[in-house]
Design brief:
Blueprint: E1 4-9, H1 16-29, E2 34-38, H2 45-48, H3 53-58, E3 64-67, E4 70-74, H4 77-98, H5 103-109, H6 115-130, E5 135-139, H7 152-181, H8 189-202, H9 205-209, E6 215-221, H10 225-241, E7 245-253, H11 261-281, E8 285-290, H12 299-310, E9 325-330, E10 333-339, E11 348-353, E12 356-361, E13 364-369, E14 377-385, E15 388-395, E16 402-403
Parallel strand pairs: 1-5, 1-6, 2-4, 2-5, 6-7, 7-8
Antiparallel strand pairs: 3-4, 9-10, 10-15, 11-12, 11-16, 12-13, 14-15
Length: about 400
């Protein structure tokens, strides 16, 4: 059984590929059979290891050995279409083509968002069940919202149980007639067989991805306002999906070692955002990583960088997971629970602005991104009990401030 699965997620350009690669080298040095999988369409994982492009092209989409105990795999959507999505892709492409799109353009349009991520789930499920690797690291595509692919197994299971047989039988009955009266293609039996095969390949992956002992998410961010906001929203979505975020890596921090006046200003700005992130993500473990003096490329650099990140700690260790907040639906109301230790209820004020809830505690303010369905709802009630603040939302578009009761 794979010992650990770790997802590295964050906004594009924050350094998540480098952190994922350095983690992989650290795991391999500990004797763990490790694979790092890149889910980004613009792969840069092989560049981090300074790999020969000819080798990567020759082994396109397959695991490539980098050094002892370590492999990398850059998912190639064209290879995956041929192996896993063939008849589904052909049918969607024919639909686009029937609307008048050029055949080549129709084929491009038929590459649906999430195909690479879902293909990665096939590999994870297979590697896990085959006990092929001790550690599976995922270098995710930019932005946490793209990770909605993790709910696909649930959606597909519902479809298979509720609609699949009905649609397949209807298509079988309607197809001979429809082919005579319309040019719009009706899915053939191979299309439905492909969906069934996808379902079989994904079976069991949801339990693996949501297992606290097996799978963790590590968010990579930079101490900048725009990046911090996206990290907060990514964190919220992972909480909604039931994924376990065990740490936040704040990367590219300016070291405090006598910079010029210009860089001292940047350092001061970064310090404010770091303090803000520590308040926001508490009690999630936060790791601060200084800006490196040079580009981190190749095994030696990555090994050194891994030592800086983890020190003597085991990179696979699961930090204690305490969800700072969680969402639930109770009848027609939505409930948000926030962990707030050492806070007195008389010090708490709540207000809502757009899709953010503002929790004010004295001079401290926490901005919590809300799911889209809460955007037009108002805070109806709130209570503090056992170090947990519970806030209820109901229908309406009132944004007035509510005092915690």
């Amino acid at each position: 059984m794979s010992e650990r699965i770790i997802l590295f997620a964050g906004k594009g350009g924050v350094g998540k590929t480098t952190v994922a690669a350095a983690t992989g080298v650290s795991c391999a040095k500990r004797g763990k059979q490790t694979i790092i999988m890149s889910l980004d369409t613009a792969h840069s994982l092989s560049d981090s290891f300074d790999m020969d492009k000819r080798l990567m092209d020759r082994e396109r989409g397959k695991p490539v050995k980098v050094c002892k105990n370590l492999w990398i795999q850059e998912i190639d959507v064209q290879e995956e279409i041929e192996e896993n999505w063939g008849d589904i892709h052909k049918y969607i492409s024919s639909l686009f083509n029937a609307t008048g799109l050029d055949e080549i353009l129709a084929e491009e349009m038929a590459i649906l968002p999430g195909m690479e991520e879902v293909s990665a789930l096939f590999y994870i499920n297979r590697y896990f069940k085959e006990k092929r690797f001790d550690v599976i690291l995922l270098d995710c595509a930019p932005t946490g919202e793209s990770l909605r692919f993790i709910i696909m197994p649930t959606a597909l299971e519902w479809y298979m149980k509720k609609l699949f047989k009905l649609e397949r039988n209807l298509a079988r009955i309607v197809r001979p007639i429809a082919n005579k009266v319309t040019s719009v293609p009706i899915p053939g039996d191979l299309y439905f067989q492909s969906i069934q095969n996808l379902y079989k390949k994904l079976r069991g992956i949801e339990e693996i991805m949501k297992s606290y002992h097996t799978t963790s998410v590590r968010l990579i961010t930079n101490p900048e306002k725009i990046v911090m906001k996206e990290t907060q929203r990514s964190f919220m979505y992972f909480c909604l999906y039931g994924m376990h975020v065990d740490s936040i890596f704040i990367n590219r921090i300016m070291p405090d070692d006598g910079f010029s006046r210009y860089f001292k200003t940047w350092r001061e700005v970064q310090s404010r955002y770091i303090d803000s992130m520590e308040d926001y993500f508490s009690p999630i473990a936060i790791k601060k990583i200084n800006l490196q003096s040079h580009e981190v490329v190749g095994i030696n650099d990555l090994e050194r960088f891994g030592k800086e990140i983890y020190g003597k700690r085991n990179p696979l260790a699961v930090s204690k997971v305490i969800k700072p907040f969680s969402f639930k639906k109770i009848k027609d109301k939505y409930k948000l629970s926030i962990v707030l230790p050492f806070v007195d209820k008389k010090d708490i004020d709540l207000s809502k602005s757009g899709d953010e809830l503002i929790v004010r505690i004295g001079s401290f303010k926490r901005f919590i991104p809300l799911p889209r369905y809460c955007k037009n709802m108002s805070v109806s009630n709130a209570k503090l009990k056992d170090k947990e603040l519970t806030i209820f939302f109901n229908g309406g578009n009132h944004n007035e401030e509510k005092k915690e009761k």
